[in-house]
Amino acid sequence: MEIVDPKSRSKRTRKGVKLEQKYTHPLQFFHTPPTDTISLQEFEEYAVERLKVLKALDTAGVRHVRGSDKYNELVEKEIKKTKFGPILRTDRRDDEFLQRLDHISHFILRLAYCRSEELRRWFLQQELELLRLRFQRESPESRQDFLRENNLNYSPISEDDKRDITPELIAASGRNTSQAHTQEYFKVPFVEVLDLISKRKVFLSDGFAYVPREDMISILLTHYRAHLSHSLAVTCRALPHLEEDDRLLPMVCGLSKRYVGKDYTSKKTNVGQITADMVEMLSKQSFPMCMQQLHESMKRDHHLRHGGRQQYGLFLKGIGLSLEEAMTFWRKEFTKLIDGDKFDKNYSYNIRHNYGKEGKRANYTPYSCMKVIMSNAPGQGDYHGCPFKHCDEALLAQKLRGQSLSKEHIDKIMTEVKGGHYGVACTKHFLAKHGGVEEQDINSINHPNQYFEESQRILRGDKKESLKPVPNTPRSQYSSSPSQGTPKSQKIPESQGTPGGQMSGIEEMEEDDDLMMSLDC
Amino acid sequence: MGDKSDSGYDPASLPDLLPMYYRKLFPYGPYFRWLNYGGAPKSYFTNREFSFTLKDDVYIRYQSFSDKQEMEKEIQKRCPYKIDIGAVFSHRPKDHKTVKAAAFQAQEKELVFDIDMTDYDDVRSCCSGADICNLCWPLMQIAIKIIDRALRDDFGFKHMLWVYSGRRGVHCWVCDEVARKLSAQGRTAIAEYLSVVKGGEQQTKKVTLDDPIHPSIRQSIDIVRQHFHDYSIKKQDFLGDEEKQKKVLALVPDDVLRKTLEGDFEMGSNSGNWWAIIEKREKDCVSKGSFKASHHIVEEIMLQYCYPRLDVNVSKGVNHLLKSPFCIHPKTGRVCVPIDIEHVEDFDPMAVPTISQILDELNQTSAAAADDSGKKVKDYKKTSMGEYLRIFDKFLKGLESTWSGKILKQSDENREF
Ligand code: SF4
Ligand SMILES: [Zn+2]
Q: From which residue to which does the signal peptide run (chain B) (predicted)?
């Protein structure tokens, strides 16, 4: 893509060849970057328009069940307000402007959102949802065309073959329907439909998945996810070169910062104000449920498993616990069970790692609610996760009663939990805990560290902090800011370090190029 | 288990025994045949990461070897307490410092699974933590059968190597080419597909089944059913007292049924007839259509108690390291030996030889066979490791049949250059 600065008239060319862009289908897989010449002003404007669309999808997904009428209604309403307005209509076949907008804006946002795991995760998820939404609105012929264009078309299995496996096909669909008799089925290698595999929503035999026509979009999404996830990782690695372009960088950074909000990496001013022995008191006062739970189970067991140490450790870092204080804090609890030597050997590497002092020296950021809720679900022995999602309802209600909340408050919280609105439940929990605070006094919760800061602010009696959210969207994203989320120095991990027990954790952290999420969370 | 008392192994002697083990008994030949994958491409072995855990938990990553001889030499020099196998990288791991970090990428690895008995602590009453015994080991048998069946029948994989981890669990290495080439997403999807017991400490009911039940889960249930009477009822006596009954009843989401069962339990006298009561009551409810929430309470309980609990984080990443077969477990002294998938029931973890045992055996046979002329027999074949090497050999033969064709094809392609 070529960018022309109207003021200086100087041209920046990164790709020498300029091709006439031809759009063969209203949907795109975004394989080739645009080669158009655009002005800096357009550059920003296009990106902002696409962001509004992605933001709308995110917001609607939080409020309503994806694919429900209410969800579609909200999405349509919001998208209509943008330059992408006609995108969900099917009669805009030859809208050259729209296709160019679509194409260019996608690539700009790739630049802006490739810079940290959290940003990539968010971008990938919204882009996948956008493609899903658009694909489903295409006519059957157009869908077929698009699949064919991307070499993803298969032919249906014969009626005879189908008859042999009909009972399995019905059982695998998870629905008690007789649709299997009338549906067309396609036999595809299982790696083509990974999201159906991970949800166990397809019949698998001998390496092949038998996919009903209505689920064939899964093939598309699997390919798109792999393609986009890979491209984002590649772009991220290539970014240092781009950073030499002095005008693009601030704008690209601005784009993700402007719409993503705070990242809660501990600010310099914060660090040192919180000491290890203040944590106990603060946990009662200002911690969200997830962190209270981790704190309590650690106090009880003098131990936390890896997932818990990550979630809790980064949160504590975010509220201002310095590395030294963090060491003191963990050491004090853990050495009630193991000796100091063992602690140093097994855990201190991990703690320093989180503070960017080991391994690839990335400055890791605290987990947002989205990350807590959607990735790395707790397993046997784990206490991390979000209690609103990962706790038995009865147990959750009991915990809430334990905090002496009124029945009315508890009922309100539980209603949101049942509806799957964990952020809203958490906001209600915040209100219940902070008497006299009204809904409009706080920003709704989407980050554990935001919960903490809002609470501290209220206890100090300060006014609500405006988060500069996108117009019309009540919820802003908390995530790593670009300058901090990406490892700065590409130092290769030391070859001496952690003993075997800790290995799994480090691998996991270093392997965040490839993302995997379920679209239906 | 694992004490000197029942296996003749003393952990303090490990530093003295390891050099001998690595010199005389470690099966370098078959081991290399495996990891070399027929030498196509050649870099498959040279770019493989190994990591060593040495004495005092000193841990060194990014080891790699240019051939079998170098591997042998290095292992004998270092005498690692533990060897882990990692991914095949874009470059030789030992050169990783000379390569740009961004260019140094994990490219392929076997798809691996790790099943650990400690993850079953809430559903076994005989031991906890790292301990295992004959009463809970059937959990591993069930796990192996279920996972192996799904990998074979559902995913079409053929080359699974099952290995005893030396203490309290099992590992699975899926070595098919498709499996080795899987992306992190692909690995995650398979691990999710195979995960049925879900949720952390804050969630009591960890299995909820769709209706109708997925065909793959049906097969798993059938496998559990074959073991359920002997394992859950006889060995574990899982409804044997009030506390145990409470735990099971907590998994019944239907209030009416739970109340009924509480009353019923006054009557029975052992796990067998209590379980029969649950099964009968559930059947009655289903036939009357009086359930709202779930139709599969009996199956859900069975799975929560018996379904394999995978450590999915081990499986997800291409880059994740896993303990190598034929290591010695430092605490128990036992060799991490392959398990014959066709005779899972016959595998007895307590009978797996320890390092001291096989070294003794070797001493005795070499003394006896000192004047024996004739062709050279590999040392490990003279010990009780031999039978496990035969299992490994069977696995290797299967694997080799897949690449013999491929090597020919490759050399054809090479001729063009
Ligand atoms: S909603 Fe967020 S802050 Fe609240 S408990 Fe869940 S993860 Fe924690
Ligand atoms: Zn036991």
A: none
